[in-house]
Design goal:
Elements: H1 3-8, H2 12-25, E1 37-45, E2 66-68, E3 77-82, E4 88-95, E5 103-108, H3 109-115, E6 122-131
Parallel strand pairs: 1-5, 2-4
Antiparallel strand pairs: 1-6, 2-5, 3-4, 3-6
Amino acid sequence: MHLGMGFICLGATTLIRAIVLSLVLASTPVTTAQAWTQHGVASWYGPHFAGRKMSDGHTYHPNYAICAHRTLPLHTTIRVTDIASHRSTTCEVDDRGPYAKHRVLDMSTGVARVLGVTKKGITQVRIDVLSEPVEVAEMPEGHRKHRR
């Protein structure tokens, strides 16, 4: 959901809270989703983490289009592009990390598979923010978007 479309459904107070929350949580000087880009090394975390809780409280499923980022607000939608192959896909920031030095992103197995980097382990990527999270009603546990 694009930021503008989601705000149509929100009341003024909720809209202001969503904007303030996204600005507070983002530790970048850029405040517009379309302008935020980052380059760096990405790695992926595999099936041995399946079933563990992520930072957003949901359970990690390796095939979901999700990733971990240190500073982007949880539930931000990003495009990840492999610099070498120019392959790209979208995913949602649902976890915190990576914890390895000099890395900017940890991808799920599903995202790594789409980018073709499961054998390499790490790759140079470009991250583009597509939409920031919008305050919505809580989804029941176990109800997740499953993207391929």
